[in-house]
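Quick note —
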Amino acid sequence: MKLIDTHAHLYSEEFQCDLSRVVMRAKEACVEKVLLPNIDESTRGALQAACDQYPDFFFPMMGLHPTSVKPDWQEQLDAVYEAFHPEIHIAVGEIGIDLYWDTSLQNAQTDVFEEQLRWSNEKDLPVSIHFRNATREVIDCIKRVGVEKLRGVFHSFGGSTQELEMIMQLKNFYIGINGVITFKNSGLAGTLKNCPRDKVLLETDAPYLAPVPFRGKRNESAHMSFILNKLAEVWNVCPEEVANITSKNANELFGFGNNK
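Predicted structure written out below.
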């Protein structure tokens, strides 16, 4: 069985003291690849250092996170673009719109997101999308930039059946499922019962959103097994089948096996 953690921040300071053990535990849990999204210009160094240390295990993305968008966003975006190398980075991410914490820069977030969607077209790479409280706004941006060519994943999906249906209408997009599926009151398990299985990826979003029984503690890629087992229960199939389906989906979206 092989698993791909399609979204984790294992380069963050939470892992500075024990990254080697975190990687070892992930491999013991059958995780063969971990995709690392960038946040902003301040995280580029740590991201690259982690990928240099584990080049066949960590795969970097490059992008500007919506909560890092400030009034000087054009300078930030220019710095991130300058660091973007499609022969190194596997996707444009983490990008999107976040209207949970602050709506005052919504227009700026929209401009930054759409510019990075254009990077996806330019570099022929998928996108990893953050869309907290902004499902419809993100979908509108995708449609404006060009839904036919764009492809990617709505990272950390935890929405309603209606939101799922909206995303599934975008033929080239997947949803990323993490520890939220194990939360008793999330309702996500019910939403996913009839979700197209060829549109689902697994992720941890480590160090955040640890699954039950680790909820509230630091998350890590080794905890993928709890997400896997819960989704297997929801779909009423064996964990090995979920691993095969979701790894195949990740391979197709991110182009593993094609010089990756």
